[in-house]
Amino acid sequence: MKSLKKFNLLAMLLAAIIIASACGNGNANENTDGGNGEGAETEELEGSVVIDGSGTVYPFMARMAENYMGEQENVSVEVSRAGTSAGFSKFLAEDGTDFNNASRPIKDEEKAKAEELGIEVQELKVALDGLTFVINKENDWATDLTEQEIKDIFLASAGKKKWSDVRPDFPAEEIKTYGPNENHGTYEFFFENILEEQQLVDDINLQQDYSTLVDLVSKDKNAIAFFGYGYYASNTDKLSAVKVDFGNGPVAPSVDTIAEDGDYAPFTRPVFSYLNVNHAKEKPQVLDYAIYTMENANAVAEETGFAPLPEEEIKTTVDALNNLK
């Protein structure tokens, strides 16, 4: 009988040990799995993201990069502004940039170059911009112009040399025209879409840096220049924006009027960032930044002088990016 009791006691102890061991191992596995799962969710990314391209899109992307690096401290996001076309040259190269910002759509020859290099490219439409014409603060005569008057000022064939050639009651002073150079998508948009590829005035002063254009116009009473609304919005203390009459009265460019269905729509255009999908698949931080950019595009657009996109359009792009994971 004693032997049986001892056997039962030993059996109970052994069972308790087995159960405890199983529970312990189970907890250990759960902690490990849970730790890995939690780590995957909260793990900080590291590495770099390299972006170049449009000067127009630069304020938007620079703010986006600043916000992102505030959340991902181990990721360095470098944003440069060589211009849309110059940026595509850097993007479409061996070991090129991760993104190219663009104030015009990618061209067929650029698509062909990407295909030749085996680079998969994804277009990210990030916001809407309004082509804005700016004048010196002391210019109190050309505060509103018709769409045709603006075209005539920049067209060689129109022969508008002096402000009085535009309207007889304007000063008989020589017009000084300025704009971004051929590296920029803004120049291409103006030349191709607004002027329909007609020759610009011979003496137009084209510059690489938008900050230079702001400075030149702010010091020249007879100056008029064109660039994206965002640069005007950040320099309203130095420049005035021309109100444009498209046929129904003068319209000032603004975040509201440059919307797709806004009153400034004839001078409105989408702006983009193009993603190297190959890099996005190889470098987690690049794909993460692309998704972050689209998820926060509308908030940053309004902060930097761009009009937001429809939410359903944003969602479609985010879904496409998530499919790259």
UniProtKB/TrEMBL annotation:
Residues 1-22 form the signal peptide. Residues 44-293 form the PBP domain. CDD domains: PBP2_phosphate_like_2. It comes from the Bacteria. Gene3D superfamilies: Periplasmic binding protein-like II (3.40.190.10). Keywords: Cell membrane, Lipoprotein, Membrane, Palmitate, Phosphate transport, Signal, Transport. The keyword Lipid metabolism does not apply. Transmembrane segments: none annotated. One of its GO terms (cellular component) is plasma membrane. The keyword Acetylation does not apply. It is a lipid-anchor. It is found in: Cell membrane. Its main location: membrane. Belongs to the PstS family. The complex is composed of two ATP-binding proteins (PstB), two transmembrane proteins (PstC and PstA) and a solute-binding protein (PstS). Involved in the system for phosphate transport across the cytoplasmic membrane. This is Phosphate-binding protein.
